Amino acid sequence: MKTSTNKWIAVWIVLALASFFVAAQEIRVPILVDVAHGEITKGLDVWVNTTANPLAITDFAELHILIPQGAALDPTLRRINASRLAVFVTGDLSTIDLSRYKVIILGQPPKPLSEAELAALKKWFDTGGKTLWCAADSDYPAQGSEESQAVCNDVAEYLGSRLRVDYVSVEDSRHNARAGYRVVALVSPPPSLSFLSFMANRVLFHGPGAVAVVMPDGRWVPATSPEVQKLGNIHVIARTTENGIIVEHRTSADGKGRDGRAHKPGDRGVFALMALEFMPSGSVFIISGETPYGGYEPGVAAAYRGVELDGPRFLRNVLLWSTGNYRELSGVIQMNTAIDSLRKEIGDLSKKLDETNAKVDQVSKSVSDSMQKEISELQNKINNLNAQLELANKKIDELSASLKAEANNARTIAFVGTAAAIVLAIVAVVLATRRK
């Protein structure tokens, strides 16, 4: 009986734990999407429709849609309302409670925010841990011209961000959906944010603007500029291929637009279409040259003009990360963390190796210098010995010459003595002969 009871207790514990984890998984973070400033709602139903989009965000996020007071719902919002898959919030950014949101998205707003709204956004943003995504457009006049760039740039400046959307258009002559202005952007974050590209590489940026950065000296430069990398807190997330080209539809010359600040018509190469900035408060500001909802065709599109896209997956990745829910990104993030740790270890080892090599070079140089000194001293000794040897040889030569001279003298003396003796002997003989 006791064994049976323990068995059921164990089963109950397992079921309770399973229920707990399921409940934990059902916690949904509210995110706020703005349509109170004239934004188009196209594609918002795809965000939450699990039938049309298996990668819908409803398992981890609760979509809140901000609409103006007294506004009528358009067909997209009516479908969402009927499905009960979103919460509608009435008012503006200064009259609603922003503190409940971790993520706010402005999807290509053509109308400016009021000073009160900007102040409310900044107060919310500066508390830290928040993500604000302001999506703009190009200078093509289909959605009004350059209004959304101006709105997002005003928001960026008010929040203290260096990111801007330049007053130009970007095309890609090869990587597109059947036309250069229908850019199929490459999701290309830095290694530390590589989870944003998890199973997402191709995203539609239909008629996008180019992202720029305001440098400390006030210059606008392309977000892909090496100068930006030195800032350390700004990262390009989506870009064109090397076949990108800058065009301009509205300029100061026609009186209907502004001129590009960081890009000029005819510029070619890789251009940033989406970037983010880590702010000192711990919040993240995202800016893009196209929008994940609304616009002519939103970035959430899974296909366009027969071209397969990763819009739903990319949007899900961005919102999973922004809400801190992670889900399927957890494994990727853990792997990235491990890779970052390995990179750090490799960097440390590389630094130590460089330091060791420097010491080896220093010791080698020191040994070399010491050996060179010894060699020099030995060479001097050899030179001195050679000089002494030459002097000795010279003395030997002199002594040899002297000995030869003396020997010659001795021979001469001996010869003379012998000759004298002979002469004396002859004389003696002669004298003796005479005596007889």
SSE sequence, one letter per element: HEHEHEEHEHEEEEEEHEEEEEEEHH
- Average pLDDT, to the nearest integer? 86
Please identify the structural class as seen in this structure.
Answer: alpha/beta
Shape: elongated
CATH topology: Rossmann fold
What share of the residues does DSSP label as strand, in percent? 15-25%
Largest sheet: 10 strands, mixed
If strands are numbered along the chain, what order do they take across the biggest sheet? 3-2-1-4-5-16-15-12-8-9
Rg from Cα: 46 Å
- Sequence stretches where pLDDT stays below 50 over 5 or more residues: 1-5, 7-25, 406-423
How many domain units? 1
The helix count comes to: 8
Shape-level CATH architecture:
3-Layer(aba) Sandwich
The CA-CA distance between the termini, in Å, is: 177 Å
The CATH class is: Alpha Beta
Helicity, as a percent range = 40-55%
Total beta-strand segments: 18
Set out the fold topology.
Blueprint: H1 2-26, E1 29-34, H2 44-48, E2 61-67, H3 75-83, E3 86-90, E4 103-107, H4 115-125, E5 131-135, H5 147-159, E6 163-165, E7 169-172, E8 182-187, E9 202-206, E10 211-214, E11 220-222, H6 226-229, E12 234-239, E13 244-247, E14 268-269, E15 272-278, E16 284-288, E17 303-304, E18 307-308, H7 311-323, H8 329-435
Parallel strand pairs: 1-2, 1-4, 2-3, 4-5, 5-16
Antiparallel strand pairs: 6-10, 7-13, 8-9, 8-12, 10-11, 12-15, 13-14, 15-16, 17-18
Write up what this structure looks like:
Strand 4 (103-107), helix 4 and strand 5 form a beta-alpha-beta unit. With 436 residues, the protein is of the alpha/beta class. Residues 1-5, 7-25 and 406-423 have low confidence and may be disordered. The N and C termini lie far apart (177 Å). The protein is built from 8 helices and 18 strands. It has a single domain (2-327), classed as 3-Layer(aba) Sandwich (Rossmann fold), CATH 3.40.50. A 10-stranded mixed sheet has the order 3-2-1-4-5-16-15-12-8-9. It has a 3-stranded antiparallel sheet with strand order 6-10-11.
